[in-house]
Automatic annotation (TrEMBL):
Protein name: DUF4433 domain-containing protein
Enzyme active site: R48 (proton acceptor), E155
Membership in a protein family: Belongs to the DarT ADP-ribosyltransferase family.
Pfam family, one: DarT
Domain DarT: 3-202
GO terms for MF: DNA binding; glycosyltransferase activity; nucleotidyltransferase activity
Positions that bind NAD(+): H7, I8, T9, R48
Keywords, alphabetical: DNA-binding, Glycosyltransferase, Nucleotidyltransferase, Toxin-antitoxin system, Transferase
Positions in coiled-coil regions: none
Amino acid sequence: MAVKVSHITHIDNLTSILSHGCLWSDAKRLELGLVNQNIGYSHIKQRRLVRPVTVAAGGTIGQYVPFNFCPRSVMLFVIHKGHDDFQGGQDRVLHLISDIDTIQLTNDYCFFTDIHADLDFAEQIDDFDRLSELDFNKIIKERYWQSFSEEKQAEFLAFESVAWQSIKTIGVKTQEVADEVNTLLQSATHKPRVIVKPEWYY
């Protein structure tokens, strides 16, 4: 069974993603000068731009597109509560769902971490036979994660870009946002299924 992964982004970024035909890494997006509605911590994004990667294509974490192994991530909780760099809440945040096998069809340089990739002691792993070392059922998919938040934030990372056609499903909180997404997808050649999943939110 393919291991599903989830990337969160604001709906305001969808038009740009569709026009480029891919999700860009933060480093590549900055290089291209693209406007982006940031929902994450700016200081963590800055750290990730210089934190080295020793597997896959090397470089830095900021050169990779990040995915969690579950929806309703720890970062989404932070977004829901509001933080210094984004106060817009979670309602217009999209879950872009794919799976590791599909992403690797068009990207040879991927790896995963056992905890949040920005932490000093995160292990970077490009041997995907080791995915079974992650506790998907008791930790990563657990709804109540306060005692193991670092482990729940294990990441899958793909170098530089992820092709739009790799995204299979878009999860949203409300039917209103689903309708907006479907309108934006009308002119796209690849139209992922849009599903309303309030249980993926806080």
